[in-house]
Amino acid sequence: MLRTAIGFSDNIDHCQAITETLDQCQAMLGATVPQAGIFFTSLLDGDFSFFLNEIKKRYPTIELIGCTTDGEIVPGHGFVEDAVALLLLASDHLCFAGGVARDLSHHGEDALVTAVEACRARLPGEPSFGIILPDGLTTIDLPLATMMQRATGSRFPLFGGTAGDHYRLQTTYQFHERQVYSDAAPLLLCSGPVTITSRVLTGNEPIGRFYEATSADKNILREIDGRPAADFYRELLGSYVKDQAISQLPLAIYEFNSYEFCLRDPWVVDDQSGTVSCIGTFPERCRIRLTSISREDILRTAREANEAILHRHPGGPPELILLFPCTSRRHVLGSMTNDEFAVLFESEKAPPFFGFYCYGEIGPPAEHRPTLFHSDTYIAVGLSEPS
After folding, report:
1. Which of 259, 347, 351, 383 has minimal Cβ neighbours within 10 Å of its Cβ?
2. To the nearest 10°, the Cα dihedral for 11, 15, 19, 21?
3. Strands (E) located in 319-360
4. Contact 138, 104 (CB under 8 A)
5. pLDDT, tens digit (0-9, with 9 covering 90-100), for 216-226
């Protein structure tokens, strides 16, 4: 059995907030000693080192990772912000090992390989799945999917999301044990028998014809159909090409000879160079389409993902659901944000759920597929330990 405890607090007194969170976890666990913990916070003026030290003081042996967010997701409340949230995990048969890859923007691929190998060395068997929480700003021009596949294997089930900073878009922070980082990727690997169900869905619908990305470098679109990418955007989107409004209209990216797509959020339109910078990198050759989005489509895909996890998980509902939705979905939904979790609130059999709103989402699009980096998606992961 996978035992979990989840605590959260939005107390304005940060000392009381972490104490309340830990007390809630303690009440759920009783005498059980947790093996691993995941800590999320959108309290960007909080003392992160203090929070981590308090957690490790209460549970000195846990493998602890975490990050800052654009809002946490916890049972009984759904979306919360300006809060701290902690998930603790315990099992008789699963083992956990945490690590961190540092200096991603300069040594990302090698650092990630080293961190994964260090975690593997501390596990009694081959890992079953993993959670990863990279920096959400310093990695926007890195090929995260390629880096992760090289580090863990092309078919390894790795899930997570990139850290946020309450949509300030300045600096995100990542946590491992008692240490606070930026430009890093904490990860938690698990070995032992575990049943996993996941769904990766987006509400964005591709519209219009295909265009060719005739020139792209990492995360920068230079030319679309032989024209400066900035001209393409201004002609088709007009006044939406300003501030952060453009990020709500992602591109569907298709590799040649494929009709499967992933999404990339436009970030900056540079009229001087004629380029468009996006969150996430592009294949060497690809086709693109514009997409449309509505609140109805966002909520529909969240409902489909949650229902699939609840009703199609082998052996009945999972013992824990992890959620990694994109922050752009939250900003489109506004006051309807908690409707993304309506199925989980309404179901009598819904297990505990825990997650955060990410700047980018990480997970395989289907079982036995490579782990990819996504934008504008809703990722739900069901976990249970077989009897």
Report:
1. 259
2. 40
3. 320-325, 353-356
4. yes
5. 999 999 999 99
